[in-house]
Amino acid sequence: MEARWRSSAKPVQAPKTTKTVSFEEVSGEASSSEALPLSLHLTNAVFFSLFFSVVYFLLSRWREKIRTSTPLHLVNLSEIVAIFAFIASFVYLLGFFGIDFVHSLILRPSTDLWNSEDEEENEALLRKEDARKIPCDQALDCSVTSAPIISAQKVVDEKPVKLTTEEDEEIIKAIVAGTTPSYSLESKLGDCKRAASIRREALGRITGKSLSGLPLDGFDYESILGQCCEMPIGYVQIPVGIAGPLLLNGKEYSVPMATTEGCLVASTNRGCKAIHLSGGASSFLLKDGMTRAPVVRFGTAKRAVDLKFYLEDPENFETLAVVFNRSSRFARLQGIKCVIAGKNLYLRFTCSTGDAMGMNMVSKGVQNVLDFLQTDFPDMDVIGISGNLCSDKKPAAVNWIEGRGKSVVCEAIINGDVVRKVLKTSVESLVELNMLKNLTGSAMAGALGGFNAHASNIVSAVYIATGQDPAQNIESSHCITMMEAVNEGNDLHISVTMPSIEVGTVGGGTQLASQSACLNLLGVKGASQESPGANSRRLATIVAGAALAGELSLMSALAAGQLVKSHMKYNRSSKDVSKTS
Ligand code: ADP
């Protein structure tokens, strides 16, 4: 009953849909968009009318008694009934509207704490936030907005597909029977939304599982065709939070982070504040080159050595570069590094790829060179275009040492006062913790590029928001965080060095509506008009800047001994997940 009340008290505007016969309905489960039954409106109207009628009746009776000097406590049957009706309707209306009203008063979002000069006031506000059980202990800005949530995904101007036609029913049956392959729906129907809808319906019937909760409407399925995802049946929603402004190289950035991890955005936000109050961070690009390393095999190690020397001879580089660069006007070969294992040779090609992350581009260039080499080395057996020396989406020392994509170093000097007041710790504690945790602890753990507190948290969240390949988080999160006391021990110098940030602002998921909006927010959407590659390079520096903010805040929370406390307190949902359908 309470669940129905609450969903009715905050009515969700359901998308206007034509009546569709979905698997949820077939299996008897109501979808969430149907959560406002008409009977509730009627009940509300009845109780409203009842309440005002009895109030009017009782007041007029009261006036009458005063006029005739009748004692007020003498009540007849109709007055008793009216009093009961008054109490019942009052309790109903209080329960229905009153609880939400009181909640809205107590849970009203705080003002932006960044603007508050008064540290005491900040603390008080934070304590107030604590009472509300908002998972933001590490952050200073935990404002909760009560504004309606609007899907960031481009809302597609389309009518929901009706699954009631005989033709659709035939197709669904054919998929269920296995006579029509599900993957062929897009090409057969020429309508990606309808294909997804039919596939989803068929899947529901085949598995007998409900897909209620996985949305279908509100997504542009044409935009992912042949590019981002095959056989779609819907899309997963991930909230996007905003950290910042991050003051980096003299510019302010609002950093979008897609995550479901409580505290993460808030913590990064606090790091941004500390950086901002200390005059900002500086980020420098060291290298920009995507890699691909095919593996080729020869009959003898000697032949493999022949090819290695040929490829590493500077005199041959010009020719190889011309062949390689034919793959794209943006691909520019930078070098080839050869590694031998017996009679097998691994050729690690590195090239710049403009604003694209560049995996496709570099692969095409490599294929061109392999085809070219086949003339002079006909005994060369190409085993695989990727021989794992690249090394893509796997932890590998080669990326940590040589770099892959963009190599960036980012630094900031955090004022000692800011460390104390905003980060609630001391320069000394941070330097000591960094040495024992990020450097020594990681060394003892045999870490590979993991000399940091949680760079991958920030990298993943920014990657998902901006349409990067989240699997590349593995090497993109390689990071060494360094901290040192400077200015006679008063201030903190912090830096992150990240040798393999793989990002692009064109291609892949970057062109999808939501992701593209996040890139736009950062001012790096699409191809750079000034110089090819400028947007993706800037994005890499922002990723490093955000990682710096994240490192600063989490390390401070650890140094101040807040982390476990805050996670125990705020990150433990009291919801009984076993009851979640
Ligand atoms: P990736 O190589 O990262 O997988 P894609 O090959 O999917 O990326 O996308 C890159 C495409 O974008 C290429 O076709 C390329 O010609 C085009 N493109 C347009 N402008 C640029 C630019 N400034 N930098 C890189 N590629 C660009």
From TrEMBL:
GO terms for cellular component: endoplasmic reticulum membrane; peroxisomal membrane. Keywords: Endoplasmic reticulum, Isoprene biosynthesis, Membrane, NADP, Oxidoreductase, Transmembrane, Transmembrane helix. Its EC number is 1.1.1.34. It is found in: Endoplasmic reticulum membrane. Pathway: Metabolic intermediate biosynthesis; (R)-mevalonate biosynthesis; (R)-mevalonate from acetyl-CoA: step 3/3. SUPFAM superfamilies: NAD-binding domain of HMG-CoA reductase, Substrate-binding domain of HMG-CoA reductase. GO terms for biological process: coenzyme A metabolic process; isoprenoid biosynthetic process; sterol biosynthetic process. GO terms for molecular function: hydroxymethylglutaryl-CoA reductase (NADPH) activity. The keyword Iron does not apply. It catalyses: (R)-mevalonate + 2 NADP(+) + CoA = (3S)-3-hydroxy-3-methylglutaryl-CoA + 2 NADPH + 2 H(+). The chain crosses the membrane at residues 38-59, 80-99. It is a multi-pass membrane protein. Belongs to the HMG-CoA reductase family. This is 3-hydroxy-3-methylglutaryl coenzyme A reductase. It comes from Gossypium hirsutum (Upland cotton).
